[in-house]
Amino acid sequence: MASPAAPFRPPLQLSPPVPKLEPLTSRHVAVIGAGPAGLVAARELGREGHRVVVFERGDQVGGTWVYTPEVESDPLGLDPRRAVVHSSLYESLRTNLPREIMGFLDFPFVAREDDKERDSRRFPGHREVLEYLKEFAREFGVEEMVRFKTEVVHAGVVESNGGDVNKWEVRSKKRSGVKVDEIFDAVVVCNGHYSQPRIAQFPGIEKWPGKQIHSHNYRVPEPFRDQVVVLIGTSSSAGDISLDIAGIAKEVHVVFRSIADEKLGKHPVHDNMWLHPMIKSVHRDGSVVFMDDSVIFADVILHCTGYALYFLAGDRERVWIGVHRYKYHFPFLETNGIVTEDDDRVGPLYKHVFPPAFAPCLSFVGLPMKVIPFTVCELQSKWIAGTLSDRILLPSKENMMEDINNFYSTLEVSGTPKRHTHNLSNDPFEYGDWLAVQCGCPSYEEWRKQMFYAVARVKKAQPEKFRDVWDYQDLISQAHHDFAKYLPNKVNKYGDKKLISW
Fold it and tell me: From start to end residue, where is composition biased (Pro residues) (predicted)?
């Protein structure tokens, strides 16, 4: 059975908010992270007239889309002394959404067929996504806002004499070790949540002699040559990696938390792949026992078991249904305990963005899961930028808290676990449509919605071929027809002779 998703509770009002009539306010804003969320946040803030500084500890934009062959010294990522590698990309990774859906709303992610070095596939590899993000940063002048090789080590509130928060102190550190203290009007947190692995736990693992690795540290299949591999997980990456290593491993045994009995056993296509229920126990002789009491002897257990949110201050250690979670820490953000993390719920947040106590001067971009991430980040950023300029009004702090508490009550009544608070898979577009109403801007095109569901249908029918086989060419044509108003003449396939800038 699939995990329950958190419903997006309808907002208190569906009509567009009434903008203030006073002149727009320009604020000095710190954006933490230069991945997709940070890049689009910086653009929207700049468009709104704010003065923006983007802090990025890496040496280029792209965030999680920056590939490195490097892996951590601890393959499970449990050793706090390890040198952390933030990328989770593997060499063969391709997107699980077509480029037409994936791109920002007004900056189409089109194939650059005039450049033979680029990946023109509809579901491109990770390098093509990074090139797209670099193009976005150059086109909108975001690169000029970024301080590379600069890590934020502290961001805390500065209270006025009256007790109201009106400034944020941000301390950053260069790789050289030089620290700088600055004061900002607002902080936008965009540092992602895909680098802190979860590890499955089961009896006997302390004495099991084999090797364990989390998919965060998977790059290429070669280390698994002629090995018997047990792979735990059912995510898109788990499916990709199982196929990746099947061509080189001796055997691949894929473990599911929930799987129908009739699907257990040998894979119908791959001769060296088997499907199993969850692991019951492992033993010092190298054996792995599954819930149906079947037994194999394995060399490697590969955990494709997801990630814990890596956001909020305070060290903790939790266990949930056999899953080991990292000690949560958000080393730079200090909110005096007002914003917390509890079982992957970051809160209290109004509509997954604003903590009422600090709104609009503290916000989070990119928390929602099971959505189209780039476009959700874009719409969230428009909302944040508008509220910071006083063009868009938020409800009162009391009303925001009331909305949050009602939302949490709805989750509790429906039996939705806290860890699914930011999971919007029940309706991936309702939240974005609501954000667009708040901003007074266009929302998702109908073709984008229909294509999303068409891809899901094809993926279910042909999980190993959905990236290269599709039956929604009419929707692709509609997409490119819409893209004509944004694309320069040189890449516009649809005959619009008017040169329209990005």
Answer: 7-20
Q: Strands 295-297 and 199-200, how do they pair?
A: unpaired
**pLDDT per position as a tens digit, 99-142:** 999 999 999 999 988 888 999 999 999 999 999 999 999 999 99
280 has pLDDT over 70: yes
C-alpha distances in Å from residue 115, one per residue of 37, 100, 119, 483, 502: 27, 18, 9, 19, 19
Q: What is the DSSP letter of 67?
A: -
User: 282: which strand partners?
Assistant: 288
Residue range(s) of every CATH 3.50.50.60 domain in the chain: 28-195+309-446, 199-303
Cβ 36 vs Cβ 60: under 8 Å:
no
Neighbours of 214 (CB within 10 A): 27
Phi-psi region of 146 (alpha: psi -120 to 50; beta: other; left: phi over 0): beta
Task: Determine contact, residues 63/75, Cβ cutoff 8 Å.
Answer: no
Distance CA(452)–CA(14), nearest Å, equals 24
Return the CATH fold of 28-195+309-446.
FAD/NAD(P)-binding domain (3.50.50)
> What angle do helix axes 36-47 and 373-388 make, rounded to 10 degrees?
30
pLDDT at 193: 57
pTM: 0.88
Does residue 479 have a pLDDT over 70? Answer: yes
In the numeric block, the tokens 């809160």 are attached to 347
Tell me the percentage of the chain whose pLDDT exceeds 70.
85
Q: Does domain 199-303 have CATH number 3.50.50.60?
A: yes
Closest-CA residue to 232 (of 284, 293, 282): 282
Round to whole Å and give the CA distance between 413 and 409: 6
Question: Which run of H or of E encompasses 231?
Answer: strand 228-232
Closest alpha carbon to 248 in 212, 273, 265, 266: 273
User: Which amino acid type is present at position 38?
Assistant: G
The residues, ordered by sequence, that sit 6+ positions from 79 with a Cβ below 8 Å of its Cβ are: 73
pLDDT of residue 483: 94
Report the distance separating Cα 277 and Cα 238, nearest Å.
15
Q: What confidence tens digit (pLDDT) does each residue in 76-95 have?
A: 988 888 888 888 899 999 99
Q: Say if residue 329's pLDDT is above 60.
A: no
